[in-house]
Predict the 3D structure of the following.
Amino acid sequence: MYHCGPTVYQRPHIGNYRAFLFADLLRRVLELADLKVTQIMNLTDVGHLVDDAEEGDDKLEAQARKDKLDPWQIVEKVSAQFFEDMNALGVQPAHAYPRATDHIEEMVEMVEKLIEMKHAYRVGDNVYFDVHSFPSYGRLSGNRIEDLEAGARLEVNDEKKHPADFALWKSDEHHLMKWDTVFGPHGFPGWHIECSAMARKFLGDHFDIHTGGEDNVFPHHECEIAQSESALNGPFVNLWMHTKFLQVDGGKMGKSLGNAYTLDDLAERGFSALDYRFLMMRGSYRNSLNFTWEALKGAAEARRNLNDFRSRLLGEGGEPEEMNLESLGAESAVAKARVAFRKALADDLNTSESLAALFVLRNAYVHGELDAAEYPVALALLAEADSVFGFFDSIESGGLSDQEIDQLIQERGEARAAKDFARADAIRDELTAAKITLEDTPDGVKWFRG
Ligand SMILES: [Zn+2]
């Protein structure tokens, strides 16, 4: 699988992470089905213009000027933040995260091939793809060349043969990130050719799945198909999957609207990255999802309930045990939950149904309808769910999140101040049972796991 990754000019906001969390989910579901997955996600560090199409500044260079930094420094800083966020979100690392600027040679080679095959043409030091040379252009997005050209803006770059042609290679002596190649001394790649070249390098000419956000369908992925299928003279990708946008309070999310939240904004309000992950798993990738603080609060509570369910099963002596559905019998609550859990995932990744199956099981437990003999298999099902959803807290800490630990420590302090030592001791015991060690220091209570 190849996933269009972030353009590393600004720390991605939570809406950007929706597509990356989907990529992670997809991999985990395929692996649950015993498929072997090679997962590649690129980092775009040059050539992505503000306008997505041909016009405007390079996003990285615009940011560099604003911050009075070198674009390469921005790349380093933002990439580091991105990986930190991905880690906090519980995303399994992809097999590689290629950077566009490390693959200029591969891009140049593909552009040269397209020129040689008459799918592309040079105008001075610029190179354009001739969309009329690829009859199925528009297959993915439904955009027809005629309509695109009829709607083309008047100020279109008139060195192109047709208004819908797009740049493969651009030249600009003022560009900060530029390469001296066969096309001239001051060149840089178009955004679309980057993904075609990197996907080919890591996954070969023809591979299974390519994903991205819905904004990538056109022009980005449409152009990738045109370039790759033309250059390789054959099929490129078997399946395209796109995640719909995350909205905020029913509207668009954007920097200028002040609602392009980052994980830090969530943490400031007391929500963890895993709470956000859980919220994303509640919606289908095919539908836009509306972010509200209320919805995030609901997700955090639901996640806590599942964590608590698992802690209680563990606390009552359960140990995860290999699942044997046949020995469970069809009437077993766990067997039913597992069938529903898997069936929903197999139904176009219906994660909300799949999660609902876990809550049905939890309710059975809460109402005393879950036989204690089933606790080990129930734990095994929760472990399987964790392998797909990845939102459980680490088991070593008895399922307590950092936030819950802080809360308990605060309560303990209050209990001591009120001379309620029985309550203070009870909290200390609870934390000890969860393998949290407390240390009273002059600066207050410090804690660590283990
Ligand atoms: Zn891409």
About this structure: Residues 4, 195, 220 surround zinc ion (CB under 6 Å). The chain has a mean pLDDT of 91. The CA atoms of residues 194 and 249 lie 34 Å apart. The chain has three domains: 2-243, 267-392, 402-449.
